[in-house]
């Protein structure tokens, strides 16, 4: 967080953990949003854009999985 020193006193969660949770949620949200963008591109028969959004969606899913794995390890104490 950039707002001058929050270290969990406000949220009850350390910034690094909060930021990791936020990152996973953002990746998952992006993957969901991209699904509708893919459908829009397919309806317009624009395979180039649909392919771009599929690649971005795969990247978002990968980011979410990596983030969940790291978060899981940290919450388990490892």
Q: How does the SSE layout of this entry go?
A:
Layout lengths: L14 H29 L3 H29 L3
Helix pairs in contact: 1-2
Strand content: under 5%
Number of extended strands: 0
Order of helices and strands: HH
Q: Would you tell me the overall average pLDDT?
A: 89
* N- to C-terminal distance: 24 Å
Alpha-beta classification: mainly alpha
Rg on CA atoms, Å = 17 Å
Biggest pleated sheet: none
- Helix fraction, binned, reads over 70%
Overall 3D shape: elongated
Q: Detail the poorly predicted runs.
A: none
- Structure annotation, total helices: 2
Short description:
Helix content is 74%, strand content 0%. It is mainly α and 78 residues long.
Describe the protein.
The longest helix has 29 residues, at 15-43. The chain has helices at residues 15-43, 47-75. It starts with 14 loop residues before the first helix and ends with a helix. The chain is an all-alpha fold and 78 residues long.
Task: For this entry, give a set of tags.
single chain; mainly alpha; 2 helices; 74% helix
């Amino acid at each position: 967080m950039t707002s001058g020193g929050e270290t969990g006193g406000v949220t009850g969660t350390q910034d690094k953990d909060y930021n990791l949770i936020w990152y996973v949620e953002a990746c998952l949200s992006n993957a969901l949003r991209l699904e509708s963008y893919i459908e829009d591109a397919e309806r317009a028969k624009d395979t180039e854009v649909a392919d771009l959004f599929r690649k971005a969606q795969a990247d978002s899913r990968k980011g979410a999985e990596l983030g969940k794995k790291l978060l899981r390890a940290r919450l388990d104490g490892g």
